[in-house]
Amino acid sequence: MNSKKFFSRAVIAGVAAAALVVTGATAASAAEGRDAGDGRKLEQPQTNGSLDTYFLLDGSTGAYIGETDANSDGWIDTAFAPSKNLVAVGNNNGTLGQAATYAAMDPAIVTGGDNSWDQLYVVLDDNISQGISNWSAWTVSAAIDRKAAAFTSLTLSGKTNGNPGIAAVLAAGGTYQHGLVFTKNNGQTVVGAIYRTVDITAGSTYRVSTTQYYTAPAFVPDFANYAATAGASAKLVGGSLALDATASNAGKTVDIWVEGEASAKHSGVVLNGSGKATLTSDVAADKKLAIVESNAVVAWVTTADVSVPTDATDAATKVIIASPDEGVRTVVIPTGAANANQTFRAYGWSTATDLGLITTDANGDATVDASALSYGDHTIALVDGAGDVVAWGTVTFSTVTETNTDLEVDVTVSGIFSLTGVAASVDLGDVKRGESTTASLGAFKVTDDRALLPGWTLTAATSPFVNAGAGNDQIAASALSIAPAIESGESTGLTIAGSPVAGSGVFAEGAANSSTLEAGTTFNANLTFAAPAAAKAGTYTSVLTLTLVSK
């Protein structure tokens, strides 16, 4: 056994305010929200968790504040002074200087229609759902129309209440929720809130998060409405999928979808003049298929197994196959003009051998590479999608005259089996809560030049990340994502983890009878640490152990 250890470090950037409460939803759960005003739909919820959002006007000029994000980092490029006079409105397509052309927000979206709220606040806090007693900075809004929050002032420095108060928050900086909070019971009960995320630079300016617009999901056939198409079929025979989408789909280029799969199994399949196609496929039997053209299902079918013939004996389909020259094992099988430009699967016997898919030419002749068959006498047949033999014949493959010379060579090995060059430590750098940082593990080498090559396994095991300066607070080892890579050297028979390892797992493997050669194979990995929202500020350390064992 070979083991190497190194220490890693991650520093969580702290702020004076309490830890940010993450209330957002993943993009996968986002739905189509209301119209933003310009014809686009909002994503609901926004990535910060708010079920709605507001748009910004310059309170002095009435100009709409655009949302240019040149860095694609999720923040509006413009940095605002805390005293900047900003106003919240409900749409993004009003007329310059004419505030009345902008819509007000509809509280019902975030209150679920609960019309019992009686006070509207403008709040800055890391979790504005906590209620007035816990807000960092707030003010009572002048807009208390019970049907709509109309043109509410969002000037950051205008907050007159809260603990620790706006002055302390601006001095400390950090990431907060900022928006309109609809309450009852004198602000103690939050009925709903419309907010954005703001990032305050300590003692300076702040930025506002961008709006997320809804994007419709990519096309996927609706198998819930599967209805078998009359006359259509999908037959499986010896690794071939023979499709018959009926003549109504002749000449179409289609994609083949399998129920339960996220993308098309086969793309760009061209159906012939009868609406048929034969292709190599590993799809299983009894699977529902959708045959799709331009995001529209043109046929529904279910796959069915067809038995592979064990030989060919029907005199009606027997043809003459000319024997090739000595040493050549490519033959031409004539099937007749009726089978021109058709795709079949070729088989050879004595022992049934799959010779692959063959497409006939304009004369119906199929050229078959039979090099998988040994020299001697064989039967070769072409089989259609139904498993029926279309044409068959016998052929003799003869070899050239051979003479034998005995050869001998001694293979020498070094006998080395080792894990070397692993870094003693890696600094993962600084990272904010809810964000990630990536560093390279550094190149190291596995050498397996043993005599019998039984194979090996290289595993990675990460201990929890511990912050000694924060009462030994721990972050789970799974916060570290390990993405292995082979950098150089012999790689035949070597595999690495197909997806990043979450903390611990198999890093790489060497199959039996594979060697790295005496020079060894060089590996590396990207280490990505994802800081949880609840992480404490300070230095976290962990130990990653790489272990090489023989199979």
TrEMBL record:
Q: Where is the signal peptide?
A: 1-30
User: From which organism does this entry originate?
Assistant: Microbacterium schleiferi
Full protein name: WxL domain-containing protein
Q: Does the keyword Signal apply?
A: yes
Q: What's the superkingdom here? A: Bacteria
Which keywords fit this entry according to its UniProt record? Answer: Signal
